[in-house]
């Protein structure tokens, strides 16, 4: 089907004896805003890396935009967790966003006016244009996250993958970021992973639960039973949105 | 005499410049321990050259480049335990170097052949080696210019660069290839035990001086060239071992940069708290 932009069929990922993903099947359609939730260590980041072709599945098949993930990398924007970044890297905000324009770079390529214009447009879309000359290391968590989204968008992707975009940012900034993503979703297919089951459901239109196995029914309705299977513990949902709690069963019970 | 000194000085500038530049890249790409292992593999190669009666630079080059490429391939396939692999290569290379020196016909540590391999020598610089350095510099600069923006992206975040379609594995291998080539080309001047000081000290000093990536690369290259050339002149005047003198000068430059940074930051803090400015 032409509308299928990501398709995973019976995908397994193993590191030695450790199974990280178990028989995962997932289809993402053009225009979807899919949220993948699950506990830490449940394989969410691995799943994104499989879609990007950075990790080869031990078994199964991955198709992205009708081809192999490696061949379509230039069409995928990726926003990794900001905790992985070198905060002391000596570059300005604009330098970092411009790096998003390299994927299709040729030998001896230099950034031209179009690259710079697009990078600035993306910064404006993320409401970060005024910080373009600021050293990247001086930004707050939320600001850095917006810059990284702008960088991913600068490559003019068809799919945007985000890994825990709201980790280490405060609640009002989280809401602002989700609002921006919702707006971006009018043009780009978005897959977002998060361990945060609260806010995410307000903005995404489909939710999948991942803890080695993927529970996905192509909608955003998630039953308590599915959540309990995913988190491997009883789940008490305090509210729809924030705050939320995921409680582990006490030993003595 | 002047001609030989001029040759050595030119070689020192080129070696220092190349080491400072590759040092910047290996540090930023977080493959420093790997380059440390490659430097010792070069030492092992040079020592093997003593047994086989080969020019130590070429035997060092073969072993260094081969180990760099092998390590590079392993690193792209292994997620954990990379440091340990590097250290295993480092210790094995050091052991091979010592054994090769022991097994070679050159029994006295102060002889010119051993000096070239271990401590470096002014006398070891020839026109041929200078051309080799020039050629290495030319190819290295060409590569950096051709892939400048891709390499810049890798310097910021390797995983992100790979996700954006940059052939990270290829660039890592090329960078390691150049590390092997540059280290073995510089071996004659600094010796196998001290060549890595030119890889690390100038870049560490550049981080104290500048906060911009491109400026750090430039400063690291300049400091590498300055350390090597001034170390060479000092060693000539005082009749000290050239490699050790270069290493010492580069360490003094690093220390000076560090102290200068502390002084400048203290002055800046004082200025900020100054009532006139506040």
Describe what you observe in this structure.
The complex is a heterodimer of chains A (253) and B (278). Chain A has one domain (4-231): 3-Layer(aba) Sandwich (Rossmann fold), CATH 3.40.50. In chain A, strand 8 and strand 9 form a beta hairpin. Chain A has helices spanning 44-52, 93-98, 113-125, 141-154, 171-184, 200-203, 224-231; strands at 4-15, 18-29, 33-37, 59-64, 76-79, 159-163, 189-194, 206-211, 213-216. The N and C termini of chain A lie far apart (49 Å). Chain A contains seven helices and nine strands. In chain A, the strands form two sheets. In chain A, strands 5-6-7-3-8-9 form a six-stranded mixed β-sheet, sandwiched between helices. A three-stranded antiparallel β-sheet of chain A has the order 2-1-4, covered by helices on one side. Chain A is globular. The model of chain A is unreliable at 238-253 (pLDDT under 50). Chain A is of the alpha/beta class. Chain B has a domain at 2-193: ABC transporter involved in vitamin B12 uptake, BtuC (Orthogonal Bundle), CATH 1.10.3470. In chain B, helix 10 packs across helix 11. Chain B is globular, with a radius of gyration of 20 Å. Chain B starts with a helix and ends in a 5-residue tail after the last helix. The A-B interface holds A 15, 52, 54, 73-74, 76, 78, 80, 84-86, 89-91, 95-96, 98-100, 102-105, 107-111, 135, 151, 155 and B 79, 145-150, 152-153, 155-157, 159-166, 210-213, 215-216.
Brief write-up:
Helix content of chain A is 27%, strand content 24%.
Key terms for this structure?
heterodimer, A: 253 residues, Rossmann fold, 6-stranded mixed beta sheet, globular, disordered C terminus, B: mainly alpha, ABC transporter involved in vitamin B12 uptake, BtuC, 0% strand
* Discrete helix count of chain A: 7
CATH homologous superfamily name of one domain in chain B? ABC transporter involved in vitamin B12 uptake, BtuC
Number of helices of chain B: 12
Radius of gyration of chain A: 19 Å
């Amino acid at each position: 089907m032409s509308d299928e932009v990501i398709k995973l069929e019976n995908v397994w990922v193993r590191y030695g004896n450790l199974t990280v993903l178990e028989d995962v099947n997932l289809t993402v359609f053009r225009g979807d805003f899919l949220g993948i939730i699950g506990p830490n260590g449940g394989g969410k980041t691995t799943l994104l890396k499989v879609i990007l072709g950075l990790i080869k599945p031990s078994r199964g098949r991955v198709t992205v935009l009708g081809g192999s993930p490696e061949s379509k990398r230039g069409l995928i924007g990726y926003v990794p967790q900001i905790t992985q970044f070198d905060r002391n890297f000596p570059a300005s905000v604009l330098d970092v966003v411009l790096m998003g324009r390299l994927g299709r770079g040729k030998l001896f390529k230099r950034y031209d006016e179009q690259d710079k214009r697009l990078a600035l447009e993306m910064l404006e879309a993320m409401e970060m244009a005024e910080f373009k000359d600021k050293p990247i290391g001086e930004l707050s968590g939320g600001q850095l996250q917006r810059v990284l989204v702008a960088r991913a968008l600068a490559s003019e992707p068809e799919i945007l993958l985000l890994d825990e975009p709201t980790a280490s940012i405060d609640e009002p900034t989280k809401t602002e970021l989700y609002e921006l993503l919702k707006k971006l979703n009018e043009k780009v297919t978005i897959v977002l992973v998060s361990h945060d089951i609260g806010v995410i459901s307000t903005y995404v239109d489909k939710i999948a639960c991942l803890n080695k196995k993927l529970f996905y029914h192509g909608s955003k309705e998630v039953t308590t039973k599915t959540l309990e299977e995913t988190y491997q513990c009883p789940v008490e949902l305090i509210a729809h949105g924030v705050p939320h709690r995921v409680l582990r069963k006490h030993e003595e019970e | 005499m002047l001609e030989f000194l001029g040759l050595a000085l030119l070689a020192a500038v080129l070696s220092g410049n190349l080491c400072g530049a590759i040092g910047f890249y290996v540090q930023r790409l977080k493959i420093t321990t790997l380059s440390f292992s490659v430097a010792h593999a070069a030492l092992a190669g040079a020592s093997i050259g003593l047994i086989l009666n080969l020019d130590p630079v070429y035997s060092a080059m073969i072993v260094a480049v081969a180990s760099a490429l092998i390590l590079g391939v392993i690193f792209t396939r292994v997620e954990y335990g990379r440091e340990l692999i590097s250290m295993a290569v480092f210790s094995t290379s050091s052991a091979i170097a010592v054994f090769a020196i022991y097994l070679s016909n050159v029994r006295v540590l102060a002889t010119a052949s051993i000096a070239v391999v271990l401590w470096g020598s002014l006398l070891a610089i020839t026109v041929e080696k200078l051309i080799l350095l020039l050629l290495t510099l030319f190819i290295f600069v060409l590569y950096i210019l051709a892939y400048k923006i891709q390499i810049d992206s890798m310097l910021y975040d390797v995983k992100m660069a790979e996700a954006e379609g940059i052939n990270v594995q290829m660039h890592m291998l090329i960078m390691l290839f150049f590390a092997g080539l540059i280290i073995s080309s510089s071996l004659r001047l600094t010796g196998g035990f001290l060549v890595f000081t030119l890889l690390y000290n100038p870049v560490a000093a550049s981080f104290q001086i500048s906060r911009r990536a491109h400026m750090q690369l430039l400063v690291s290259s300049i400091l590498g060239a300055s350390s090597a050339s001034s170390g060479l002149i000092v060693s000539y005047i005082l009749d000290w071992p050239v490699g050790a003198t270069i290493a010492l000068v580069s360490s003094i430059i690093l220390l000076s940069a560090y102290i200068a940074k502390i002084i400048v930051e203290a002055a800046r803090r004082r200025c900020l708290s100054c009532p006139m400015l506040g």
